[in-house]
Specification:
By secondary structure, this protein is an all-alpha fold. The chain contains 9 helices and no strands. The model is unreliable at 1-6 (pLDDT under 50).
Length: 224
């Protein structure tokens, strides 16, 4: 029982703050969904940030954008998740490995569901765009990795929350830049994907801890 705080993927001191972040992020996702439902053109914010084109970046930056985009595709994301899970197991943090898979999977699954519900498109009716699944995936993975680092480094509430949000911001901005640069998403799609991960991953972390704790309790009871 005393070992739980050190093995939890979502440290107890961070739950309230990250829970609030999740609620605010969910509100942003919902607000943007209502605002852009059924749209097939960039909004005013999108056009102000960057002109919507399918070829807005040139080599060598284009190569970087394409590499990042590949890491969000099924083959690339599978390799990234496999590497992340392997690292968690080597560090003796199986719960973190579960979160890498579940957090990224649920973030992408939620983004995919929202795409069909919102119906926003880019470059034709077959290209659903809101929110960005690539951005949600990369953000969720960075979020989980930062939670692991927070535990390993023994960070406090403020430092731990700052690290998690900073990692999520960097990851979301990096993948988001690639998606906008390649013309795959509008900037507001990227924001929606980022917030989707911020809303889903804390809840997934809490759920992983609850299930793992119950399984750990069930083991001793079953032996008596």
């Amino acid at each position: 029982m005393t070992g739980r705080p050190t093995t939890a993927v979502l440290p107890s001191p961070l739950r309230a703050r990250l829970g609030l972040v999740a609620v605010l992020a969910a509100l942003v996702v919902a607000g943007l969904a209502v605002l852009y439902a059924g749209h097939s053109r960039p909004g005013a914010v999108d056009s102000w940030i960057v002109p919507p084109t399918a070829d807005s970046v040139r080599p060598p930056l284009r190569y970087a954008a394409e590499t990042l985009d590949f890491l969000g595709e099924p083959a690339g994301s599978a390799m990234v998740v496999l590497a992340a899970v392997t690292g968690c197991l080597l560090l003796g943090r199986p719960r973190a490995g579960v979160l890498m898979v579940a957090g990224a999977g649920l973030a992408v699954g939620t983004a995919t569901l929202l795409k069909h519900l919102v119906g926003r498109t880019i470059h034709g009716p077959d290209n659903l765009s809101y929110p960005s699944g690539h951005t949600a995936f990369f953000t969720a993975l960075a979020f989980a990795a930062a939670l692991l680092a927070t535990d390993r480094l023994g960070l406090g509430v403020t430092a731990g929350t700052s690290l998690v949000l900073a990692a999520a911001l960097v990851a979301g901005a990096t993948m988001g830049w690639a998606q906008v640069a390649l013309g795959a998403h509008y900037p507001t799609d990227v924001l929606g994907g980022w917030c989707t991960a911020l809303a889903v991953t804390p809840a997934t972390s809490w759920l992983v801890d609850r299930i793992a704790d119950r399984l750990a309790d069930a083991g001793p009871r079953a032996r008596h």
